[in-house]
Design the sequence.
């Protein structure tokens, strides 16, 4: 009875919080100085600051390959004239993830554990993500979230929830541009200021990032690596971002792709190593599809885990007081922790009723 009452109380609190979270709000975090303008590529406004000059001089630019920024044509990176030998390990050209320039770490592309799916959501935090985060919480499922700095600045309380809920938070740049089209100054600022925003709002300094659109080459990798940001790509793509009304594909087409991901999980493709799937915390459509397909995805793969856990990275931030479960810890927690929680509330319920009867007080 008591646990039912507690449950009702918790539901009420969650509902009230949910309503408060999604309306536009002002927060105690300020971004008026020391940050680029929200959703714009950083400019001389920040380049000329003492802070950025200091960051810039901390980079050994002789280790950054001298690669000319690419151009955008009709909103996509232009590949014309680029050498077929892919000298810069440019992901957008041929999905290269093993750098060719010396001294660069290969990108993380998959979860090494057989049958294991690394779950990732790009582009958050979204103002309206409460239902989605509640769902993940209810399933006791942690994921890796690639947050856009401008969104963290706009929705700081949503961003904080990701950390509280135990998700792994990574950098997804300040304003979500194709990074290989940016100058060195712009690329450095995109990474530096998004990471600074995450530190300011959430108190952590991520050690991982993902390039928007996967658009990375050895020049961008070299800048990221000097900021202690390792690059995470993916080997399975849900294409969810391209669904109507935000995109052009019909929900049925996205369903076909998800069904394909389920089939791959079952047919032995990942018998020897696992996968990382790209999904998005972009809008109601992508989050609804994630909820809809989660049960089938979960049963098609042996384990569904955040990237930190499948890599055994127990400290995914520079700060040493945040620890995440290793792979073994994550997969063993999953079955036992919910069970433990329900036992505890049962025991408390019984004790409360016993005490109440002992003193003949009516608690209902
Ligand atoms: C950053 O440093 C490089 C190399 O010294 C220099 O070329 C560039 O102009 C600097 N950027 C800014 C914004 O000062
Ligand atoms: C599993 O399914 C995929 C997609 O349908 C296919 O490309 C692949 O060959 C299949 N693998 C096996 C081992 O059957
Ligand atoms: C968040 O999601 C809503 C719909 O659920 C969408 O309209 C909005 O553009 C998204 N916001 C951001 C900042 O991506
Ligand atoms: C999507 O929007 C509908 C209608 O507002 C809402 O009932 C549902 O909870 C939303 N789904 C997610 C995942 O936010
Ligand atoms: C959770 O535990 C069950 C039973 O041990 C297992 O089948 C499932 O794959 C695990 N899920 C995750 C996310 O590791
Ligand atoms: C993670 O740790 C487990 C247990 O020690 C080990 O079997 C596995 O190979 C490790 N995985 C990685 C990617 O390091
Ligand atoms: C970690 O340390 C920082 C700074 O000392 C503190 O603000 C934060 O609350 C700590 N977080 C945890 C989870 O211990």
Sequence:
């Amino acid at each position: 009875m008591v646990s039912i009452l507690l449950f009702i109380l918790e539901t009420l609190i969650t509902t009230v919080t949910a309503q408060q979270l999604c309306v536009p709000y002002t927060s105690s975090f300020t971004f008026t100085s020391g940050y680029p303008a929200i959703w714009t590529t950083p400019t001389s406004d920040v380049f000329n600051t003492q802070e950025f000059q200091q960051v810039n001089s901390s980079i050994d630019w002789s280790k950054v390959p001298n690669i000319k920024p690419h151009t955008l044509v009709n909103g996509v990176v232009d590949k014309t004239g680029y050498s077929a030998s892919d000298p810069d390990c440019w992901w957008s050209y041929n999905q290269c993830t093993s750098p060719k320039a010396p001294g660069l770490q290969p990108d993380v592309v998959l979860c090494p554990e057989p049958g294991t799916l690394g779950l990732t959501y790009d582009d958050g935090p979204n103002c309206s993500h409460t239902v989605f985060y509640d769902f993940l919480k209810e399933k006791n499922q942690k994921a890796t979230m690639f947050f856009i700095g401008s969104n963290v600045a706009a929705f700081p309380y949503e961003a904080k929830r990701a950390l509280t809920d135990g998700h792994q938070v990574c950098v997804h740049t300040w304003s979500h541009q194709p990074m290989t089209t940016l100058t060195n100054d712009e690329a450095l600022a995109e990474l530096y200021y998004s990471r600074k925003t995450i530190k300011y709002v959430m108190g952590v300094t991520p050690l991982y990032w993902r390039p928007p659109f996967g658009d990375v080459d050895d020049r961008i990798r070299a800048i990221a690596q000097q900021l202690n940001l390792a690059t995470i790509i993916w080997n399975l793509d849900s294409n969810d971002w391209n669904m109507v009304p935000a995109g052009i594909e019909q929900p049925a087409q996205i369903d076909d792709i998800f069904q394909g991901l389920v089939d791959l999980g079952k047919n032995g493709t990942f018998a020897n190593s696992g996968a990382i799937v790209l999904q998005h915390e972009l809008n109601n459509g992508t989050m609804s599809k994630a909820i809809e397909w989660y049960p089938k995805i979960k049963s098609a793969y042996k384990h569904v885990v955040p990237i930190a856990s499948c890599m055994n990275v127990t400290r995914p931030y520079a700060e040493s007081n945040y620890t995440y479960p290793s792979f073994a810890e994550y997969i063993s927690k999953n079955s036992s922790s919910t069970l433990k929680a329900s036992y505890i509330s049962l025991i408390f319920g019984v004790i409360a009723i016993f005490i109440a009867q002992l003193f003949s007080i009516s608690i209902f």
